[in-house]
Amino acid sequence: MGWKIVQEQYPKEPSKWSRLWNPSDIYYAFMSKKGMKNVETISLELSRSKEMWFTEVVFAYMKKMFAKMKKLRLLKVYYKYHHCLMRKEYKTSLPEGFEFPRGLRYLHWEGLEFLPSNFDLENLVAINLKGSNKKTLE
Predict the structure, then answer these.
(1) How far apart are alpha carbons 42 and 22 in whole angstroms?
(2) Quick one: pLDDT at residue 133?
């Protein structure tokens, strides 16, 4: 029911929704190059869709879009099947200069190898980096 409410006003424009959870909708929103100013939550389950996500092109769009996403508070990138995290191809390295939105309060990114050196902890309430190489936050 909640999903339908989010989609009602702009049924074919996921870049204008406040919450994104369907991998195809998230991909379209990033690749459409339209502002994602209203997005507060992204929950991306990658078990069946990883190959379309972690390419230089997609990261370039994500990098541009994240800078404009002032309302993003929750970012969850995860695998339904946790055994995936043990395999090297499921590890993620962000490109140089990648920045998360400053207002981010919850970050859950399974398999993220490292956080960017410019990662801002000021507003962060919770972080989950299952399967990462990060042992401490500085």
Answers:
(1) 9
(2) 67
